[in-house]
Write a structure and sequence with these properties.
Layout lengths: L1 H5 L24 E2 H9 L1 H17 L10 E2 L3 H32 L7 H10 L5 H5 L5 H13 L7 E6 L2 E6 L4 H12 L1
Antiparallel strand pairs: 1-2, 3-4
Helix pairs in contact: 2-3, 4-5, 4-7
Protein name: DSBA-like thioredoxin domain-containing protein
InterPro entries: DSBA-like_thioredoxin_dom, Thioredoxin-like_sf
Pfam families: DSBA (PF01323)
Length: 189
């Protein structure tokens, strides 16, 4: 999306919305990521996915993608993302997303770990993370938004809704820049 928007004179912001791919995952240190993916998709499919994911990240200038590490329940990471949006807007939320993605996709750390989440919040200079994670704030709001996504038929991530000129377009899955250019052009008309 960033590469596509760079080719057009666009002024926009991105808001990251919550979605649970597997709400039954454990919290804390989670579970082994590779074992989880192999149980979910099968060992052959996971083996085929890995080179594609490495290539996708590399095409974006990001080296070091790994399926190693841990995976866990993401409720608290979504609560932090909502805090970032509410207190610092889309720029603060983007900074937190970058920190979370680095820890998950490049370092194999679980986004269910309080220590990992606090480290990412510190990297994004997000105030209030420790207080948020110590209580239940924004839990109901995140669950309500996820339920709304399920009700709207969203089944996976990434899922994008691009609004402009009173109209909206939706697109899901990993998409090339050309797909976003087409949407941006149609909304600019």
């Amino acid at each position: 999306m960033a590469r596509a928007s760079a080719t057009m004179a666009l002024d926009f912001s991105v808001s990251w919305r919550p979605f649970f791919l597997d709400p039954r995952l454990p919290g804390g240190d989670g579970k082994d990521k590779m074992e989880h993916y192999q149980a979910k998709f099968g060992a052959e499919r996971v083996a085929a996915m890995l080179p594609s994911m490495v290539r996708t990240f590399s095409d974006e200038g990001i080296d070091g993608y790994t399926m190693e590490g841990r995976v866990g329940n993401t409720l608290d990471s979504h609560r932090l993302l909502e805090l970032a949006l509410r207190t610092g807007g889309s720029e603060k939320q983007d900074a937190l997303v970058e920190a979370l993605f680095d820890r998950y996709f490049l370092q194999g750390q679980p986004l269910s770990s309080r220590a990992v989440l606090l480290d990412a919040a510190k990297a994004a200079q997000l105030d209030g993370a420790e207080a948020l994670l110590g209580g239940d704030s924004l839990r109901d709001e995140v669950h309500a938004e996820v339920e709304g996504a399920y009700d709207a038929g969203v089944t996976g991530v990434p899922y994008f809704r691009v609004d402009g000129g009173g109209r909206g377009k939706e697109i899901s899955g990993g998409q090339p820049p050309e797909a976003f250019l087409k949407i941006f052009a149609s909304l600019a008309r």
